[in-house]
Fold this sequence. Notes:
Layout: E1 6-12, H1 16-27, E2 36-43, H2 49-53, E3 61-65, H3 70-80, E4 85-88, E5 94-95, H4 99-109, E6 113-117, E7 120-123, E8 129-131, H5 134-137, H6 149-153, E9 164-167, H7 168-174, H8 185-193, E10 198-201, E11 207-210, H9 225-248, H10 259-276, H11 280-285, H12 297-312, H13 317-334
Parallel strand pairs: 1-2, 1-4, 2-3, 6-10, 7-11
Antiparallel strand pairs: 4-9, 5-11, 6-9, 7-8
Helix pairs in contact: 8-9, 9-10
Amino acid sequence: xxxxTISVIIPTYNNGHFIRSALESIFKQTYPGDKxxxxxxxxxxxxxxYDMLNDYMDQIIYIxxxxxxxxxxxxxGIALSKGKIITFLDSDDVWLEDRxxxxxxxxxxxxxxxxxxxxxxxxDRDGRIIYKNFNVAFGYISEKExxxxxxxxxxxxxxxxxxFSFKREVLEKVYPIPLDIRRGVDFYLASVSSCLTQAGxxxxxxxxxxxxxxxxxxxxxxxxxxxxxxxxRDFAYMRRRVIEKIRDLxxxxxxxxxxxxxxxxQAKEMIFFQILNGRRLRAIREIPSLFKGRLNLQDxxxxxxxxxxALFVPRFFYTKIVKIYGLIGRMRSIS
Length: 335
């Protein structure tokens, strides 16, 4: 069976140090190169990104735009793409050589599948392995296929930008991404798309997620409660956009998705944001939203813990809590 064309979209901003490695990992793919379309959307880089790409201009589609944010860069790439499958590679990440072939094969296995995803390693700036499996290290679930929306919005599935691939007809129903989403674009695409189609999972590690000083989104704010507050605000806003988009989807049975899950998480992030910005009363008003819907025992315990934090915990302790959470993740990966 002839494989479909796949479009690889690489949004980038000031990642000149890493982008050649990202591109080389695509050129080394076992899947036929003439069926891979590579689109690099440069979102106003001011470093040496363009110089690093000079040698590849005849192999890629390069687009430069004034800085508009990650959502605009993704939108531009989707609009230009022509592949039947659309996937994203962050410009500081890399793929293993059979990544695209394995993704295409997974799509071929079942016509009902409109999303394919897989685990990744975590590497440092110099490519040394930190964790052999990101999902295991940070407690994300694996092997989940079919309808996965509730697992995504509850935070059980890692939605890294270099891990998900989509059929064009699915992504076109989600596109365009709201331009005011500053963080969590990957989560937005994965959660909304998963409402429309079933997902296939590849258990093998097929990529490497690079952790360095400029992409510490998930660890941001460990030493600065104001920065941590901004991160929580951005994610809470993104989740609100997810809720709006899911409710607006046509031909979709919204009853199959537990919207209370994402509303509870949004409330938690707004509580943290308000407290970290010195507005505890506003945070306390969000507490009832933590208890929306049908809660199991674990949900109740989490809601009670966040409520206690909202009522009594001084804001400077929040950065320490983030560090403890990261330590627990590292201990889990060792065990």
